[in-house]
Amino acid sequence: LGPLAAALRALGWPPRGEDAAARRSALLTSLDAYGCGLVVRADLEWLDGWRAPEWLHSEPDAEAWRQLRDLLLRTYRHPLRAWRMLLDRDSSNQISWLEFKDACRKLSFSGNVGGAWRTLDCDLSGTISMREYDPPSAELLESFKSWAETLFGSVSLCYKALDQDGSGLVTLAEFKRACSKYRWHGDVRLLFDCLDPDGKRTDAHTGKRSIALEDLAFLDSWQIDPAREEELAGRALGREAA
């Protein structure tokens, strides 16, 4: 691997920078699939048939993201509703390039899709999280999740406290009363609207719009940065003590 590293360095790849040596080392380690300390022709030939995704060779384009965001807001009115209804259909708290590209196709977005993606995927991880997409929406959901887990153990157990009449459905009025009683101070109406973004679920007895456990349960599997989770839990405990 030494001679290959020297050849790459002589050819100027990667361009000089603080991480040049680390990037070169990462490439060589990846090409040396069997860890035998050498690279043969077959280790390189597969690259001829590889087609890199569009975002990987795109530059960040803030204007393209602004145009796409405006289109999302015109269609769905709020970033969180767009995330729930269009982008993150599997409620995984992240979207892939294919999901992003498919959403742009459904919106008939004709701008720079790869550039819009790169504006959000700053770390080139290949996925976009809710926090990268819209920090205020991430704050809302993370705050509710942390509050529910701190006070009740999980979001699913929290739902039992929200469902005060035991009907299996929670109306906006019930949701507001429970959040006020147990001191969650987030935007209750916005969260309610975005948990059931299409607004089709109604209580059979009252005819009022409602949410069910399945509309909330996805939050139990969400992963939050540990430091962020500790901060949110501290806030929830502080409100409970007050």
From TrEMBL:
InterPro entries: EF-hand-dom_pair (IPR011992), EF_Hand_1_Ca_BS (IPR018247), EF_hand_dom (IPR002048)
The protein's name: EF-hand domain-containing protein
Protein keywords: Calcium
A Pfam family recorded for this sequence: EF-hand_5
Gene Ontology molecular function terms on file: calcium ion binding
Location of the EF-hand domain: 86-110, 158-185
